[in-house]
Design goal:
single chain; alpha+beta; Alpha-Beta Plaits; five-stranded mixed sheet
């Protein structure tokens, strides 16, 4: 399996609109590991690892967001990490 580890910063109206829970649900459904959390600047941070195709699927969902959110930018960085997440969590 081709594993990938991604770090994302999601900008826009993404706090207070159920965005973290949306990302959590999608990531768990896809079997991905990592976390999602709000940042003090109003953005949302996502770190995710798993199969490259499933990570790409989550990225596309994040770019669309929820009806209540408005994603204006997604900064994506592929990282090499020794972190082994055991689940996907909301922080």
């Amino acid at each position: 399996m081709n594993e990938q580890h991604i770090h994302m910063i999601v900008r826009g109206m993404v706090q207070g609109v159920g965005f973290r829970y949306f990302v959590y649900q999608r990531a768990v459904r896809l079997g991905l590991k990592g976390f999602v959390r709000n940042l003090p600047d109003g953005n949302v941070e996502v770190e995710v690892s798993g199969s490259r195709s499933l990570v790409e699927e989550l990225i596309q969902m994040v770019k669309v967001g929820t009806r209540a959110s408005s994603v204006t930018d997604v900064q994506i960085q592929i990282i090499n990490s020794d972190l082994n997440f055991t689940s996907f969590d909301i922080k």
